[in-house]
Amino acid sequence: MKFMLKVVAFMLLGTTLAFAKPTIYILATGGTIAGSGSGELSTAYTSGTVTVDKLIAAVPQINEIATIKGEQISQIGSQEMNNEVWLKLAKRVNELLTSGKADGVVITHGTDTMEETAYFLNLVVKSDKPIVMVGAMRNSGSLSADGPLNLFNAVNVAISKDSVNKGVMVVMNDEIHAAREVTKTNTTGVETFKSPNAGKIGTVFYGNVKFYMAPLRKHTASSEFDITKITELPRVDILYSHANDNADFANIAIKNGTKGIISAGMGNGNPFPTVLEALGEGVKKGVVVVRDSRVGSGETTLNGEVDDAKYGFLASDNLNAQKARVLLMLALTKTMDKAKIQELFLTH
């Protein structure tokens, strides 16, 4: 009799474990998804006013598929995003995932700098568990607000077994994008997030998750970066090129102590002649210069119209300027060896 009771108890325990819901932490940083305005048809609103508990309460369906826990990391518009919040967020994500407290993490974030935060986390989080960034293009009080369904879809991506080892993902407008590839392409449209060089990696339609591709560059657990002991990041600036440009901004950045410059050049990363010479002088003073392009897609190639070997420049591969800045900041925490930094651009 005792043996039979033990067997029944074991079977019940197994059934309970089989149906145990995954634990998903929702880390809120602010943004339009947490914004509120003066009316359903008003375009004016304030980011980050809605707290994480209210975001969760607005989508009760997520509690049916996961054990949801919420934390407020910051309450800002993502145009205010900064290194301090990045480091705080990354270290908390690392703690939650590596300690086993969470099976996945969803991060609510403004759309202005979502791609930069996503790529930063993609390079520094040391876990293959799902990490999903999500936001909205219409604030919570707007007519046809997109935040609730985006959040529902994000949680579904976070609990999907197929999301493991995909790196950080951005879920918006029924699409799943890899952190390295995604960028915001439209100022107001809900279809704003695209991956111009590679395309989306999957879709999520009312919680139905499907993947079609996977990122191949090093990320998360395979990345070479570790921020465990890092409390600040080096200054790196972006310079945007244009016709009839001048070297003033390059010279000011160098004078004011920048450690690195991303040159968002014309075409295949070509600076205006006076800027080219100023950047070359910066390299002689120890500034790491990476050529990028203002075009928005495509590879910036080494030694094209610019003699990179002569000037000591590096090239960004096909990262856009804002993501090249993120990678260079992290690279400079490891090394000043330009050959090693170039290799990081070709592998991450």
Structure report:
The protein has 348 residues and is α/β, with parallel strands linked by helices. Helix content is 32%, strand content 20%. It is built from eleven helices and 16 strands. It has an eight-stranded mixed β-sheet, with helices on both faces. Strand 14 (260-265), helix 8 (273-284) and strand 15 (288-293) form a beta-alpha-beta unit. Helix 5 (114-124) packs parallel to helix 10 and helix 7 (248-255) runs parallel beside helix 8 (273-284). The longest helix has 17 residues, at 2-18. It is globular, with a radius of gyration of 22 Å. The protein starts with a helix and ends with a helix. The active site is at residues 32, 111. Keywords: Hydrolase, Signal. GO terms for molecular function: asparaginase activity.
Compose a concise summary of this entry.
With 348 residues, this protein is of the alpha/beta class.
H/E topology pattern = HEEEHHEHEHEHEEEEEEEHEHEHEHH
End-to-end separation in angstroms reads 60 Å
Question: What amount of the residues lies in strands?
Answer: 15-25%
Radius of gyration: 22 Å
Global shape: globular
Largest sheet: 8 strands, mixed
Mean pLDDT across residues:
93
User: How many separate helices?
Assistant: 11
Number of strands: 16
Structural category:
alpha/beta
The strands making up the biggest β-sheet line up spatially as 4-1-5-6-7-8-11-12
